């Protein structure tokens, strides 16, 4: 679901009605700080958790690929033998 221009304008008007225009700068600044903080924390989590887990999974993924190829080869052999 996407938000169109009319929805954004409506949200803006509601925000203006709820908060004093003088306070909007303060709220926008606080929102910007919060978003930067969350982005930094996400990057820390990615670096300390997600990336090492992905790296640890690489050998398992490689082994699974080898097993899948072997199983496929065995199936092909059995199918070819059954057709004879």
Question: Brief overview, please?
Answer:
This protein is mainly alpha-helical.
Overview of the structural elements:
With 84 residues, this protein is an all-alpha fold. It has one domain. The protein has two helices and no strands.
Tell how many strands the DSSP assignment holds. 0
H-E string: HH
Structural class of the helices, strands and pairings? mainly alpha
* Gross morphology: elongated
Low-confidence stretches: none
* Strand percent estimate: under 5%
Largest sheet: none
> What portion of residues is helical?
over 70%
Number of helices: 2
**Overall mean pLDDT score?**
86
Report the oligomer.
single chain
Whole-number tally of structural domains: 1
Q: Span between N and C termini?
A: 55 Å
Q: Report the radius of gyration as a whole number of Å.
A: 27 Å
Topology summary:
Elements: H1 5-18, H2 21-83
Provide key terms for this protein.
84 residues; mainly alpha; 2 helices; 92% helix; elongated
């Amino acid at each position: 679901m996407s938000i169109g221009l009319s929805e954004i304008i409506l949200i803006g008007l509601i925000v203006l009605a709820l908060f004093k225009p003088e306070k909007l700068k303060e709220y926008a600044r606080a929102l910007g700080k919060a978003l930067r903080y969350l982005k930094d924390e996400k990057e820390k989590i990615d670096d300390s958790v997600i990336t090492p887990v992905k790296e640890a999974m690489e050998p398992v993924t490689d082994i699974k690929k080898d097993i899948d190829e072997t199983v496929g080869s065995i199936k092909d052999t059995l199918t070819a033998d059954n057709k004879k």
